[in-house]
Amino acid sequence: MKMMRWMLMGPAAATVAISLWGCTDDRPAAEASRAEAKVTGTVKIHGKPMASGEITFNPANYQREAEPRKAAIKNGSYEITTLVGQNSVLVSGPEIAREPELGYAAQSIDVSASGSTLNIELPPAQQPAPTTTTEPTATATDTTKPTTEPTTKPKSEQP
Fold first, then answer.
1. Is the pTM of the predicted complex or chain greater than 0.90?
2. CATH number for 113
3. Structural domain of 48
4. What proportion of the chain, given as a percentage, has pLDDT over 70?
5. What is the pLDDT of residue 137?
6. Distance CA 114, CA 75 (A)
7. CB 86, CB 31: distance < 8 Å
């Protein structure tokens, strides 16, 4: 009888464990894959290719420990192999050291298994500030006359 109880409890316990797997914390899911993919792109500063520098992709998250991947930026271009999924991106180099406001950090890219492209413009494009108005906006009205109406009065209607 005891043997039968253990045989029934084993599968039941496994079912409960599997159903609770992934529900133990409220953090968002993160890629745990160890698959790699290539990322290519360009880095421009004030519209011109960055002469030299380094780009770092960090694929680490709470589900996988991984070392950051680094690649040289030469004449504005780079190529790097990193893990598939979310990667934080950091750009560094002498031009950024001279102008720290150009810094590019904590940006993120979702690297696909087929590879990705990330082109970076520094400084980042500014979003236009939202405009708020309290006055109603004017709308255009059509002031032209219909084409069926004569543009001059007939002689009989003239004074």
1. no
2. 2.60.40.10
3. 29-122
4. 57
5. 39
6. 25
7. yes
Going by C-alpha positions, the residue among 99, 93, 118 that lies closest to residue 108 is 118
Q: Does residue 55 lie in a domain region?
A: yes
Residues 6+ apart with CB under 8 A from 134: none
- Name which residue leads in pLDDT, 4 or 54: 54
| Residue 107, both tokens | 């940006």
**Tens digits of residue pLDDT in 66-113:** 999 999 999 999 999 999 999 999 999 999 999 988 887 668 899 999
The answer to whether residue 85 is domain-embedded is yes
Residue at 47 is within a domain:
yes
Q: Classify residue 151 by its DSSP letter.
A: S
